Structure formats: structure tokens, C-alpha cells
Q: What sequence folds into this?
């Protein structure tokens, strides 16, 4: 069979992307905050993983209300992270090790401390006033919109100097830019060119699906939101009228002139809509990170609350299969199990108890690195770092948790339930400092860390795992090598074998004349698996997180959280 992908190889389809959250990765100067020189000094470690590209969360000039997602100068570096010279040095050093750099671009909003907004909010006559989105107070109160990080949950905040409300889908300190203003788009395109000209290899666009708004701001009642756009405002926000026109313009004006991968963070996009963004003939973007995988197990209609009983394995299989199949003819997918906005991968999808932490983390990595999509690994997950589970609201630094709590208190809600929910879903779970060693502050800093370090660093750390050939860290390195050496694991067809409620996710990956079988038991109980395969020879077993495979006369019995990959006999 002449394969559709053969004429369509791209580096970013074969890439494994490692995400570094600079604030928590490595502190070089003892101020307790991770920085660029910290990343620079850890480059050998990053390279040792075998990854192809680094995605760095925002390090631009910022008051840091949302840890850098509130930018006050797009062309400058926040001093606590270092300088532009440090960044240039990091680019050069990374390129010297064949590691590409992907920068985070926040173009839906700026900080309220950005020059544009500082001027805009002084007067309606200010030339920058139309850079943002305003509702004049003479029209009365603006129709409700949800502000994710607003203490009252409202996306409009009143400004006396202009007698109008500014729109902010996130916190009031993150005013949304007015993409309908061609001047704004011109400025943003120039800014993107600035970074691309510097030689960045990719752009990850933050909250990109939210850039276009229906500027008539129709009244949206909760009932209408439910009926038309699902419960989550993300879906409504992602359906702005000019979204695709703007993405096509951005492609025409900027992106197509560079050889950089472009990735949308795409809250509110379903598998039915993804090709509109990434099909080659649309000329918009290369990749899109969806949220459907992240919301499995969420309590219906609730923000940031998951079912403590766990998630549905049927849904897991259905969603990941659907998001694989949608790219069979066009486009290309991404896959991730955690990032800086999510709890720790092993705590959310595996089992972080002593008994199963390592096994389940190995299984999750086996999944992540054998699917037909570009995998993203979030720093620290390769060590099996877990949720910190703060027991006091004061331990949280994250604006999202703090604002949710303020809102809850105003509504008279209880702290205990809130804390329980946040232990499972809070973003700070995934943001605690990287656990390098068993020494003071986990080797992250010589000062006082900006966010508490998980106490389990004495046993879960890089140093210990380097010494143990059976560790998760070494297992991840082997998986990365396996994926890089086998095009079947990148381009091969994906076929689901277990269309049932069982927690066994089994699939094959087939490319030309090689087929790999992947068998994953996503549960803490032994599971039978009626295999069509004959038992593989020892040398064809490529991955196994147990010493043996229990192949009985009645078929295979998968041990708790067992993950196996083997090459099928020709
Ligand atoms: O995340 C934004 C985003 O789209 C979602 O996390 C959103 O909050 C959710 O889907 C609402 O249902 C990005 C960044 O990754 C995050 O760290 C920032 O805080 C946020 O944008 C604002 O810039
Ligand atoms: Ca520092």
C-alpha cells in the first residue's frame, strides 16, 4: 500500500516535545525562582532524554499575576528569568544539541501593565483604546461573560476613566485584545516576526481559539449556553465568528514565510472541528492541543472538579481513538497527559500510591509514546512526580485557585470540599519544583523555593533514578529511543482492539510490513485479555513494565497496570 504519509514527513510529526516550566525547573541564582540559566545548565539532562524540542512557558516581561501569561512587553525578558542574552545563549546551546525551541505566544490578551493598556484605559480618545474590548456604560451593564480567573466570575470590569467595562476572559489583569482592530493584528504579526527572525523553531499559541469575539455581545443565558455550546464557556469562546479568517491571515502574513511548527492551545475544539485548523489545505496551523482528553472524569457542569471515584476507561479509549482516527487522511495530532495547567499525570490518570506509582507511570508513558500523534512530555513527569495535595488554601500560589476560592467564599461555599477538589485538579500540583536530588530543596534552589517542594523528593528524584537501571527515567529514555527508531510507532496505522468497558486499552500500530501490539491494563486489578496473538518470543517483547508476561492456556492475564509492547510475527 502506498502510504498517505510517505510523501508528507515533517520533523514535528516525528518529534517528542519536552515542556519546561521555567519557574519550577532549575534556579541558578538562589532567589527560589527557576530561570533561563537554570535551563541552560540542565541542557545535558534534557538532551539525555532524547527529546527533539523544548517548549518553554512564557518568560517575557510580566508582572507575573498568572506566572507569565500576563505579558507587559512581548520583546523583553522578565528579569527574574534572566535576560535576552541568556535566552539567545539557550537557543544556541540547544541548537548545538539538535534540540529545537518552541516559544509560548500569548496573543489573546496582554497584561494590564502593558503600555497599550496603560494608555488605553486613560481615555476613550487614546489611540490604544480600540486595542482592547470595551462595553460603554451608557449602554447599561454588559451581558454576562465568564472570566475564568475573576474573583466574581465576571469577564467585564468597570473602568471609571473611560466609563466603560473592559473584557477579560481570564483575570482582570489580563485584558483581551481586540482582534477586530487591524492595527492590533499588525502589531502582533510584527511581534511574531521578531521571534521567528530570532530563529525559534516553533510557536505554541496560548488560548488561541478565543481570539475572535462576537462583538455584538448577545445575551447568553445559562440555558442557552447549555443548549448551544455545552456547559463550558470554553466552547462558546472558541466559536468566534472570524477565528478562521484571522488564522488564515496570520498564516499568510507571517507563518507561511517561516519553517516553524505552529501549535494551538485549543480549549473548546472537538475532533469534529480540528481539521478546520490543521488540515494542510486550510493554511492555518500545524498542530492543535485539545482538551477532550483532559476533561475525562470531570463532574458534569462543574469547573475544576473531577469524580474522586476515577474516570471512565471506555471514554478514555473512545476519545483517544477518535482523536487518532480523525487524522487518518489529513492533518496531524498531538497527545499529552499533563502540563502546567493540569495536575500531575500519574496522580490524575495512574495511581500514585506507593504500590503502583512507578508501574502506572510506566504504563502512561508507554501509551503517550506509542500513539499516532506528536507526544508532549511535561517536565518532572519522567520522574513520576506526584500531586502535592496542599491542605491549606494559603499554600496555593496559582491565580486560578485563589480566585476560585474568593468566589466560593463570596457564595458561602465550604473550604473542605474545595481543598479536596483542588488536591485532584489544581494547577499548582503540576508546578511544584523539579526534584533533582535528595539534597536540600531537592536540588532545585539554594534559596527559598517560590512554591513548596513535594516532600517525596527524598525518594522521587532524578539522582536516584539515574542510578537505577529499572527506574521510570530510564524506562522513558528507552521508550523515546524505541519511538525514534520505529516509524511504525510514529506513522503507523492505529487500530483499537478493545472496544469495550474493560480497562484494557489494546491496539496495534502498523506500517508497511511491521506491526506492533500495545497492551495496557489501565487498572490496579489483574485483567484477562483474549488475545488474537500468539505469545511473542522473548526478543520481540520491546516494552514490559513487569519482569514476565503471564500467558496461560486461556490467553493473556495482564498484571495491575501492566504495559507491554511487542513486535508481531510477520
Ligand atoms: O490556558 C487557557 C485555557 O484555554 C484553559 O486552561 C482554560 O482556562 C480552560 O479551558 C477554561 O475552561 C492558557 C495557559 O496555558 C494558562 O496557563 C493560562 O493561565 C491561560 O491560558 C491564560 O493565559
Ligand atoms: Ca532564579
A:
Amino acid at each position: 500500500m502506498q502510504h498517505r504519509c510517505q510523501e508528507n514527513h515533517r520533523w514535528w510529526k516525528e518529534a517528542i516535545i519536552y515542556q519546561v516550566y521555567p519557574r519550577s525547573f532549575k534556579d541558578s541564582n538562589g532567589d527560589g525562582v527557576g530561570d533561563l540559566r537554570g535551563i541552560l545548565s540542565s541542557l545535558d539532562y534534557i538532551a539525555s532524554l532524547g527529546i527533539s524540542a523544548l517548549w518553554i512557558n512564557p518568560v517575557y516581561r510580566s508582572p507575573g499575576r498568572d506566572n507569565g501569561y500576563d505579558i507587559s512587553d512581548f520583546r523583553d525578558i522578565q528579569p527574574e528569568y534572566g535576560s535576552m542574552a541568556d535566552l539567545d545563549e539557550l537557543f544556541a546551546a540547544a541548537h548545538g544539541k539538535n534540540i529545537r525551541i518552541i516559544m509560548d505566544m500569548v496573543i489573546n490578551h496582554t497584561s494590564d501593565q502593558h503600555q497599550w493598556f496603560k494608555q488605553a484605559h486613560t481615555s476613550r480618545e487614546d489611540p490604544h483604546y480600540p486595542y482592547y474590548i470595551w462595553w460603554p456604560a451608557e449602554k447599561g451593564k454588559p451581558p454576562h461573560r465568564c472570566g475564568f480567573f475573576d474573583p466574581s466570575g465576571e469577564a467585564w470590569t468597570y473602568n471609571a476613566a473611560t466609563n466603560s467595562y473592559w473584557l477579560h476572559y481570564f483575570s482582570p489583569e489580563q485584558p483581551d485584545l481586540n482582534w477586530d482592530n487591524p492595527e492590533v493584528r499588525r502589531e502582533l504579526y510584527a511581534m511574531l516576526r521578531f521571534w521567528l527572525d530570532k530563529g525559534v523553531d516553533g510557536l505554541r499559541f496560548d488560548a488561541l481559539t478565543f481570539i475572535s469575539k462576537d462583538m455584538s455581545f448577545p445575551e447568553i443565558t445559562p440555558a442557552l449556553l447549555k443548549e448551544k455550546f455545552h456547559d463550558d464557556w470554553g466552547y462558546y469562546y472558541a466559536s468566534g465568528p472570524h477565528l478562521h479568517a484571522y488564522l488564515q491571515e496570520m498564516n499568510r502574513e507571517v507563518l507561511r514565510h517561516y519553517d516553524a511548527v505552529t501549535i494551538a492551545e485549543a480549549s473548546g475544539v472537538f475532533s469534529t472541528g480540528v481539521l478546520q485548523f490543521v488540515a494542510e489545505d486550510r493554511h492555518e496551523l500545524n498542530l492543535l492541543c485539545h482538551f477532550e482528553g483532559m476533561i475525562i472524569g470531570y463532574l458534569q457542569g462543574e469547573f475544576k472538579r473531577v469524580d474522586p471515584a476515577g474516570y471512565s476507561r471506555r471514554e478514555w479509549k473512545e476519545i483517544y481513538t477518535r482523536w487518532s482516527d480523525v487524522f487518518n487522511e489529513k492533518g496531524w495530532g498531538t497527545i499529552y497527559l499533563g502540563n502546567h495547567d493540569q495536575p500531575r499525570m500519574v496522580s490524575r490518570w495512574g495511581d500514585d500510591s506507593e504500590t503502583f506509582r512507578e508501574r502506572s507511570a510506566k504504563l502512561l508513558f508507554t501509551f503517550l509514546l506509542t500513539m499516532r500523534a506528536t507526544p508532549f512530555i511535561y517536565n518532572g513527569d519522567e520522574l513520576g512526580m506526584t500531586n502535592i495535595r496542599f491542605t491549606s488554601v494559603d499554600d496555593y500560589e496559582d491565580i486560578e485557585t485563589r480566585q476560585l476560592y474568593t468566589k466560593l467564599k463570596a457564595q458561602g461555599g465550604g473550604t473542605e470540599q474545595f481543598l479536596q477538589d483542588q488536591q485532584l485538579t489544581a494547577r499548582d500540583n503540576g508546578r511544584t519544583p523539579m526534584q533533582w536530588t535528595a539534597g536540600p530543596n531537592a536540588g532545585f534552589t539554594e534559596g527559598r523555593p517560590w512554591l513548596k517542594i513535594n516532600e517525596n523528593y527524598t525518594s522521587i528524584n532524578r539522582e536516584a533514578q539515574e542510578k537505577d537501571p529499572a527506574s521510570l527515567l530510564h524506562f522513558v529514555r528507552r521508550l523515546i529511543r524505541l519511538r525514534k527508531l520505529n516509524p511504525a510507532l510514529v506513522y503507523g496505522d492505529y487500530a483499537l482492539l478493545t472496544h469495550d468497558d474493560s480497562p484494557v486499552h489494546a491496539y496495534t500500530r502498523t506500517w508497511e510490513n511491521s506491526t506492533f501490539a500495545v497492551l495496557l491494563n489501565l487498572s490496579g486489578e489483574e485483567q484477562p485479555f483474549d488475545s488474537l496473538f500468539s505469545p511473542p518470543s522473548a526478543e520481540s517483547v520491546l516494552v514490559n513494565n513487569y519482569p514476565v508476561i503471564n500467558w496461560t492456556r486461556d490467553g493473556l492475564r495482564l498484571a495491575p497496570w501492566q504495559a507491554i509492547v511487542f513486535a508481531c510475527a510477520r
